[in-house]
Amino acid sequence: MSPRALGYSDVIRGAFRGFGVLFVGGIVHPLVAQVFEPLGYVWLLVVALAAFVVAAVAATPRGTPVAAWRQAPIAAVGSYFMILPLVRAGSGELPLMQLLLTTIVAVLAGVAVGLARTGFDASRAASATA
User: Fold this and answer.
1) Which residues have CB under 8 Å from 125's CB, separation 6+?
2) Closest CA relative to residue 76, chosen from 58, 99, 94
3) How many CB atoms lie within 10 A of CB 30?
4) pTM of the model
5) Per-residue confidence (pLDDT) for residue 5, from 0 to 100
6) Higher-confidence residue: 64 or 18?
7) Cα–Cα distance between 49 and 107 in angstroms, integer?
8) Domain of 42?
Protein backbone atom coordinates (compact mmCIF):
# COMPACT_ATOMS: atom_id res chain seq x y z
CA MET A 1 0.00 0.00 0.00
CA SER A 2 1.37 3.41 -0.89
CA PRO A 3 1.85 6.11 1.76
CA ARG A 4 -0.53 8.40 -0.15
CA ALA A 5 -3.38 5.89 0.09
CA LEU A 6 -2.75 5.50 3.82
CA GLY A 7 -2.91 9.28 4.29
CA TYR A 8 -6.22 9.54 2.45
CA SER A 9 -7.78 6.77 4.48
CA ASP A 10 -6.67 8.45 7.71
CA VAL A 11 -8.19 11.75 6.59
CA ILE A 12 -11.47 10.07 5.69
CA ARG A 13 -11.52 8.17 8.99
CA GLY A 14 -10.90 11.39 10.89
CA ALA A 15 -13.56 13.33 8.99
CA PHE A 16 -16.18 10.65 9.67
CA ARG A 17 -15.32 10.48 13.37
CA GLY A 18 -15.54 14.26 13.66
CA PHE A 19 -18.85 14.18 11.78
CA GLY A 20 -20.15 11.62 14.28
CA VAL A 21 -19.28 13.88 17.21
CA LEU A 22 -20.92 16.86 15.52
CA PHE A 23 -24.03 14.82 14.71
CA VAL A 24 -24.51 13.39 18.20
CA GLY A 25 -23.69 16.73 19.83
CA GLY A 26 -26.28 18.49 17.68
CA ILE A 27 -28.93 15.87 18.42
CA VAL A 28 -28.29 16.13 22.19
CA HIS A 29 -28.21 19.96 22.22
CA PRO A 30 -31.94 20.53 22.94
CA LEU A 31 -31.80 18.14 25.89
CA VAL A 32 -28.67 19.79 27.29
CA ALA A 33 -30.24 23.24 26.90
CA GLN A 34 -33.37 22.09 28.68
CA VAL A 35 -31.64 20.31 31.58
CA PHE A 36 -28.84 22.83 32.18
CA GLU A 37 -29.66 26.09 30.42
CA PRO A 38 -26.28 27.90 30.80
CA LEU A 39 -24.46 24.96 29.19
CA GLY A 40 -26.91 25.09 26.31
CA TYR A 41 -25.50 28.46 25.22
CA VAL A 42 -21.99 27.10 24.68
CA TRP A 43 -22.79 23.45 23.94
CA LEU A 44 -22.43 23.62 20.17
CA LEU A 45 -19.11 25.46 20.45
CA VAL A 46 -17.73 22.83 22.84
CA VAL A 47 -19.03 20.03 20.60
CA ALA A 48 -17.46 21.63 17.52
CA LEU A 49 -14.07 21.96 19.22
CA ALA A 50 -14.26 18.37 20.47
CA ALA A 51 -15.25 17.12 17.01
CA PHE A 52 -12.38 18.95 15.32
CA VAL A 53 -9.89 17.55 17.83
CA VAL A 54 -11.30 14.02 17.41
CA ALA A 55 -11.07 14.34 13.62
CA ALA A 56 -7.50 15.63 13.77
CA VAL A 57 -6.36 12.91 16.18
CA ALA A 58 -7.89 10.17 14.04
CA ALA A 59 -6.27 11.63 10.91
CA THR A 60 -2.78 11.51 12.45
CA PRO A 61 -2.35 8.04 13.97
CA ARG A 62 0.83 7.04 15.76
CA GLY A 63 3.72 6.87 13.32
CA THR A 64 2.42 9.58 11.00
CA PRO A 65 5.41 11.43 9.51
CA VAL A 66 5.89 15.06 10.53
CA ALA A 67 5.34 16.20 6.95
CA ALA A 68 1.84 14.68 7.04
CA TRP A 69 0.57 17.02 9.77
CA ARG A 70 -1.67 18.59 7.11
CA GLN A 71 -3.97 15.57 7.31
CA ALA A 72 -5.35 16.85 10.61
CA PRO A 73 -6.81 20.21 9.49
CA ILE A 74 -8.15 18.62 6.30
CA ALA A 75 -10.01 16.02 8.36
CA ALA A 76 -11.34 18.67 10.77
CA VAL A 77 -12.65 20.86 7.94
CA GLY A 78 -14.00 17.77 6.19
CA SER A 79 -16.03 16.81 9.24
CA TYR A 80 -17.56 20.29 9.33
CA PHE A 81 -18.37 20.28 5.61
CA MET A 82 -20.05 16.88 6.01
CA ILE A 83 -22.47 18.25 8.63
CA LEU A 84 -23.32 21.42 6.66
CA PRO A 85 -26.21 19.88 4.68
CA LEU A 86 -27.88 18.88 7.95
CA VAL A 87 -27.30 22.33 9.44
CA ARG A 88 -28.81 23.91 6.33
CA ALA A 89 -31.79 21.56 6.39
CA GLY A 90 -32.41 22.17 10.08
CA SER A 91 -32.12 25.95 10.14
CA GLY A 92 -33.20 26.79 6.61
CA GLU A 93 -30.13 28.91 6.03
CA LEU A 94 -26.40 28.98 6.57
CA PRO A 95 -25.01 32.36 7.57
CA LEU A 96 -21.78 33.18 5.76
CA MET A 97 -20.13 34.47 8.95
CA GLN A 98 -20.87 31.20 10.77
CA LEU A 99 -19.44 29.22 7.86
CA LEU A 100 -16.28 31.33 7.78
CA LEU A 101 -15.63 31.41 11.53
CA THR A 102 -16.32 27.72 12.09
CA THR A 103 -14.06 26.79 9.19
CA ILE A 104 -11.29 28.93 10.69
CA VAL A 105 -11.74 27.22 14.07
CA ALA A 106 -11.59 23.80 12.37
CA VAL A 107 -8.38 24.73 10.56
CA LEU A 108 -6.73 26.11 13.70
CA ALA A 109 -7.72 23.13 15.84
CA GLY A 110 -6.54 20.74 13.15
CA VAL A 111 -3.20 22.50 12.71
CA ALA A 112 -2.57 22.56 16.46
CA VAL A 113 -3.39 18.90 16.92
CA GLY A 114 -1.60 17.79 13.76
CA LEU A 115 1.62 19.60 14.60
CA ALA A 116 1.50 18.48 18.21
CA ARG A 117 0.86 14.81 17.41
CA THR A 118 3.37 14.43 14.60
CA GLY A 119 6.01 16.54 16.33
CA PHE A 120 5.61 14.73 19.65
CA ASP A 121 5.75 11.35 17.97
CA ALA A 122 8.84 12.32 15.98
CA SER A 123 10.65 13.70 19.03
CA ARG A 124 9.77 10.57 21.01
CA ALA A 125 11.14 8.36 18.23
CA ALA A 126 14.31 10.43 18.03
CA SER A 127 14.93 10.22 21.78
CA ALA A 128 14.33 6.46 21.72
CA THR A 129 17.05 5.95 19.11
CA ALA A 130 19.55 8.28 20.80
Assistant:
1) none
2) 58
3) 11
4) 0.88
5) 44
6) 18
7) 11
8) 3-125
